């Protein structure tokens, strides 16, 4: 006798905002993990600007909050101000989302790249 388990495919739909929140959290955690790797392995190089993204050396992201509505820069680029909540701190970064369409084996696929930058400081005269 063999036991089989049949699973039905569920169509799970999430909002665009939720999808970007998940993607932003994954990419930010990846940057933090790379920073930790660079500290323990000096041969591993990092872009110094990305290293200065956060004000404190936190290790795990607790939550991501999208603060502002998306700003459309062009057809393929949009930005959003993002609050990054750690265990002991909260930082704010600018998330830059770039999308493009590529063709692989005659299929159109949407590619999304997320980068980050610090927020511009206001200049008071």
State the main characteristics:
125 residues; alpha+beta; 5-stranded antiparallel beta sheet; 23% helix; 36% strand
Radius of gyration from CA coordinates: 19 Å
Order of helical and strand elements: HHEEEEE
**What ranges have pLDDT less than 50 throughout 5 or more consecutive residues?**
none
Beta-strand portion reads: 35-45%
Proportion of helical residues: 10-25%
Number of strands: 5
- Average pLDDT works out at 82
Classification by helices and strands: alpha+beta
Helix count equals: 2
Q: Termini, distance in Å?
A: 81 Å
Approximate shape: globular
Largest sheet: 5 strands, antiparallel
Commentary on this structure:
The chain has 125 residues and is α+β, with helices and mostly antiparallel strands. Helix content is 23%, strand content 36%. It has helices at 16-40, 48-51; strands at residues 61-66, 71-72, 77-86, 90-104, 107-118. Strands 1, 2, 3, 4 and 5 form a five-stranded antiparallel beta sheet that branches. Strand 4 (90-104) and strand 5 (107-118) form a beta hairpin. The chain starts with 15 loop residues before the first helix and ends in a 7-residue tail after the last strand.
């Amino acid at each position: 006798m063999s036991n089989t388990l049949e699973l039905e495919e569920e169509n799970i739909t999430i909002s665009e905002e939720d999808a970007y929140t998940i993607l932003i959290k994954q990419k930010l955690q990846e940057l933090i993990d790379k920073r930790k790797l660079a500290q323990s392995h000096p041969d591993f190089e990092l872009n110094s600007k990305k290293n200065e993204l956060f004000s404190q050396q936190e290790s795990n992201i607790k939550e991501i909050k999208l603060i502002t509505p998306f700003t459309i820069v062009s057809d393929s680029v949009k930005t959003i101000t993002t609050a990054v909540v750690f265990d002991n701190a909260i930082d704010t970064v600018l998330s830059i989302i770039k999308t493009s369409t590529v063709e692989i084996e005659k299929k159109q696929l949407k590619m999304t790249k997320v980068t980050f930058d610090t927020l511009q400081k206001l200049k008071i005269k």
